[in-house]
């Protein structure tokens, strides 16, 4: 008996997208609402769900976590040597320095059952697997978003000396398991995600790391929860990011006892950019772009709020422009620069959370409260001015760690009040691998940057 009305679409393409055997007993296919209604009357049918897009959830971190090269957890675990970490995400920049195989032992061919799209020398003792899934098609696992490269570097990036972001946060970059092997499974939809988990189980990875997810999935239809259960039965740990939906309570998903749900916390590093107003009040912000020889001129302030492409209708030439945070603050900075603005102040949309972003012009990212104080000053003054003073990388900032305002909270409303997330780890302003060069002088060259942790779990019987 077939659940499909026929084998092909009107276009001639196969109707069947994926067939699942490890994670679930089922399939993904192109079906009309009428096809699904007819399928529901057939023997053996359990449920159907509409496929969805999945969304991403992103040099000093290892020191902050107390990891030492010569003793303790890192040393005793041999930096994750022999471990195979499968990352389910947006792909990978395979030639990035963080994924070189130098100094790593070869993988065990009796254990690893996967394949690597590129082959040697790009595939090596670090990057041993790479596959891409897109609606039933096999695609190159190239990262065109950046997120997959970033989280891969956090999980298992090799040691990279002299890494930095625009000269800040300088040091030796490393993932939490720098001697572990890495396999990338590129996805874009929930159907792809299930297929990637199934492939990772077949390939016999030790850990599956997932920082993607549906928007508020039902527990019984959550592909990560379902896939993690199948993985746990094979002794494979699944670590998944909590949703970026805090600080509202009980918005946690991936809230199953057979997986590890990871929240995000801050670290004690700040890449400081101080806003000094004309009335001498100062507000501490952040920016990864710390221009050399910057003289911190006092300039007129203008409050634009939404710094979209309509900036030319404001007189921003030679001024410091105040903008409310957006999805892409660096793009917002490009708009300010192209309109003739000299510098930018970004007001955070996440309370007291600031971010050192790779801006293309002098900038400072300040807290919501401080941003409100700056706009009050502009409204009350006929000649509001400010300057931005860059202080570089500062360590030992307290309090730290603090739960990130955006990190999803529990307790679970769908799983018996389960307390979640299970653990938190550094997840704010983490410098890690990125596919392209960033900042005011972009050339498209990949740059080394930085770091997080996932422990083992016994098989589910």
UniProtKB/TrEMBL annotation:
It comes from the Eukaryota. Residues 80-433 form the Peptidase S8/S53 domain. SUPFAM superfamilies: Subtilisin-like. Gene3D superfamilies: 3.50.30.30, Peptidase S8 propeptide/proteinase inhibitor I9, Peptidase S8/S53 domain. Keywords: Hydrolase, Protease, Serine protease, Signal. Coiled coil: none annotated. Pfam families: PA, Peptidase_S8. GO terms for molecular function: serine-type endopeptidase activity. InterPro entries: PA_domain, Peptidase_S8/S53_dom, Peptidase_S8/S53_dom_sf, Peptidase_S8_Asp-AS, Peptidase_S8_His-AS, Peptidase_S8_subtilisin-rel, S8pro/Inhibitor_I9_sf, SBT. GO terms for biological process: proteolysis. Residues 300-374 form the PA domain. The keyword Isomerase does not apply. Signal peptide: none annotated. Belongs to the peptidase S8 family. This is Uncharacterized protein.
């Amino acid at each position: 008996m077939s659940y499909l009305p026929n084998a092909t679409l009107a276009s001639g393409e196969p109707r069947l997208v994926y067939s699942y055997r490890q994670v679930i007993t089922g399939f993904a296919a192109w079906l009309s609402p009428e096809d699904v209604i007819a399928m529901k009357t057939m023997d053996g049918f359990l449920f159907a769900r509409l496929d969805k897009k999945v969304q991403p959830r992103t040099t000093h971190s290892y020191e902050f976590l107390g990891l030492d090269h010569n003793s303790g957890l890192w040393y005793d675990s041999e930096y994750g040597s022999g471990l195979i970490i499968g990352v389910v995400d947006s792909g990978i920049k395979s030639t990035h320095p963080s994924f070189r195989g130098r100094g790593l032992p070869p993988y065990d061919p009796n254990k690893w059952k996967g394949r690597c799209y590129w082959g040697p020398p790009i595939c090596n003792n670090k990057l041993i697997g790479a596959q891409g899934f897109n609606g039933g098609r096999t695609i190159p696992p190239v990262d065109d978003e950046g997120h997959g490269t970033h989280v891969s570097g956090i999980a298992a990036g090799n040691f990279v000396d002299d890494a930095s972001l625009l000269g800040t946060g300088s040091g030796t970059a490393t993932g939490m398991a720098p001697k572990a092997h890495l396999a990338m499974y590129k996805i874009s939809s929930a159907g792809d995600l299930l297929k990637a988990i199934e492939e990772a189980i077949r390939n016999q990875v030790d850990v599956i790391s997932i920082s993607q997810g549906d928007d508020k999935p039902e527990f019984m239809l959550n592909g990560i929860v379902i896939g993690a259960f199948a993985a746990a039965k094979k002794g494979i740990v699944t670590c998944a990011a909590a949703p970026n939906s805090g600080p509202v309570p009980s918005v946690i998903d991936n809230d199953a006892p057979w997986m590890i749900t990871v929240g995000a916390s801050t670290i004690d590093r700040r890449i400081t950019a101080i806003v000094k107003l004309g009335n001498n009040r100062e507000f501490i912000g952040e920016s990864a772009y710390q221009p050399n020889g910057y003289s911190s001129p006092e300039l007129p302030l203008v409050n634009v709020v939404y710094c979209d492409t309509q900036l030319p209708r404001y007189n921003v030439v030679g001024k410091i422009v105040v903008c409310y945070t957006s999805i892409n603050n660096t793009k917002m900075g490009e708009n300010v620069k192209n309109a003739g603005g000299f510098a930018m102040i970004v007001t955070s949309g996440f309370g007291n959370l600031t971010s050192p972003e790779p801006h293309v012009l002098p900038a400072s990212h300040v807290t919501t409260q401080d941003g409100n104080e700056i706009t009050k000053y502009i409204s009350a003054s006929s000649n509001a001015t400010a300057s931005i003073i860059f202080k570089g990388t500062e360590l030992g900032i307290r309090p730290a760690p603090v739960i990130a305002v955006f990190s999803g909270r529990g307790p679970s409303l769908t799983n018996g009040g389960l307390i979640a997330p299970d653990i938190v780890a550094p997840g704010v302003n983490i410098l890690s691998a990125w596919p392209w060069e960033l900042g005011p002088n972009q050339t498209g060259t990949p740059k080394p940057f930085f770091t997080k942790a996932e422990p083992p779990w016994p098989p589910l019987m």
